[in-house]
Amino acid sequence: MPGRVSLFVTCVVDQVFPRAGMAMAEVIGGLGYEVEFREAQTCCGQPAFNSGYHKEAAEVAEHFIRTFRDATDYIVVPSGSCTSMITHHFRDLFPPGSSLREETEYLAPRVFEFTQFLTQVAKVEDVGARWDGVVTYHDSCHALRELKIKDAPRLLLRNVKGLELREMGAAEECCGFGGTFSIKFPEVSGGMARTKIESILATGASTVVSIDSSCLMQLQGAIDRVKAPLRTVHLAEILASR
After folding, report:
1. 37: exposed, middle or buried (Cβ count in 10 Å: 0-12, 13-18, 19+)
2. If 203 and its partner were Cys, which of 86, 125, 166, 178 is the partner (CB 3.0–4.6 Å)?
3. Tens digits of per-residue pLDDT, 142-187?
4. CA angle at residue 140 from 135 to 141, to 5 degrees?
5. Residues contacting residue 34 through CB under 8 Å, at least 6 positions apart
6. Phi-psi category of 3—alpha, beta or left, where left has phi over 0 and alpha has psi -120 to 50?
7. DSSP string, 181-223
């Protein structure tokens, strides 16, 4: 066996997009990894952290650490933003020299976003998927800017049989979600989403793909409001299709 993978499916995937989590498990399991799901998992603490509630975020982060501290090989996440929270920001929640800071620094190198894991750890570019249709890819902010993920999702998509990938002009622009940003600044958020939808429509694609379900939730809401002939799909679901 290549190793054991513990899935951290994120609260958004668990509560709103469970098919993305199941698709991720199917793809990773199909590569020969032993896949486990720890039921004690909850959230990475990002909503509290981004809202300035660092004490509360630290409590959630501590629960994550307790849940995954004995994950032996890899922890894989279907979200760039949640992966970034764990690998980039957990350490800032605990004082230097504390046991939790040390555990965070020990845990972080074993945490991978889904496409990072496939291309960097499993060393695969083609998982044998098939998806007939034209798609365009949306770069989520945290994945692109904090994790530097750009090529991996596109490489995986280009190896899906029957799929045509068309780049949109605004691929790297924010969708306007930003967690509580979309609630505090709805008009700005909505304007950003509309700009994104216009760029997507210009490609002629029927499907928008991303590695972050929160972005897809924002985009699907904008799509539904203008009744555009588009749908949103997490990359894991594309790669699990046959």
Report:
1. middle
2. 166
3. 999 999 999 999 999 999 999 999 999 989 999 888 777 877 888 8
4. 155
5. 1, 3, 4, 5
6. left
7. HHHHSHHHHHHHHHHHHHHHHHHT-SEEEES-HHHHHHHHHHH
Asked whether 73 and 32 are in contact (CB, 8 A), the reply is no
**1 confidence band (pLDDT: 50, 70, 90):** low
How far is it, in rounded angstroms, from Cα 129 to Cα 161? 6
Instruction: Give, as one character, the DSSP assignment of residue 175.
Output: -
User: Which CATH number is 4-120 given?
Assistant: 3.40.50
- pLDDT in the model for residue 46: 93
Nearest CA to 76 among 236, 209, 238, 215?
236
Residues of the chain with CATH 3.40.50.11810: 125-240
Fold of 125-240: Rossmann fold (3.40.50)
Percent of residues, the chain, with pLDDT higher than 90: 85
CA dist., res. 173 & res. 193, Å (int)? 10
pTM of the model: 0.94
Indicate the DSSP class of residue 142.
I
pLDDT of residue 187: 87
> Position 64: which residue type?
F
Q: Across the strands, what pairs with 164? A: 134
For the chain, state the CA radius of gyration: 18
Total number of residues shown for the chain:
242
